[in-house]
Amino acid sequence: MSLKHTILGFLSWKPMTGYELKKFFAETEFIYWSGNNNQIYKTLVELGAEGFVEKVVVQQENYPAKKIYHITGKGLSEVREWAMGRPEPPSARNSFLMQLAWSDGLSEAELLSLIDSYQYEIEMKHVMCKEKLRRKSVYPGRNERERYIWEMLWQNRINAYRCELDWLTALRNGLDKKDGMGGGPK
Q: Which terminus of the chain, N or C, has fewer Cβ atoms within 10 Å?
């Protein structure tokens, strides 16, 4: 994921503060970012230096000044050019799969506990994505096509979690059939 282009994309929707950008990163399931807040502010400064964004400082009574960032025409051109670039395939990184790959040394109870824990996390993500789509909390929707695209982005995440839950059911069923075939602590 390109932090620079994602920030520009959010700002193409509407002007925002760094805090609002951080909030949208946290709320948007399909825009994964694991950095810290300083990276957002550092990137905003870099985008300003490149002429992609402008900042307006708004004085507030009893609060620190608020910096609101606006995308420029040059920034809009950059987002458009990036959006037309070659897409990357989805990332297949999943720490649970790595844990599962080396889980043969676990007892049956430990293995089931690992699977239960992962399933709970996926179920919660699934529910949260469905709720965020229902509420349309991070959902630009400036026109019909954009509304449809963002609905499909949320559906992608919902379907991925549903697929993962189906896979977990198949994993459990397969493990039940393998019961007694060895494995577990030696």
A: C
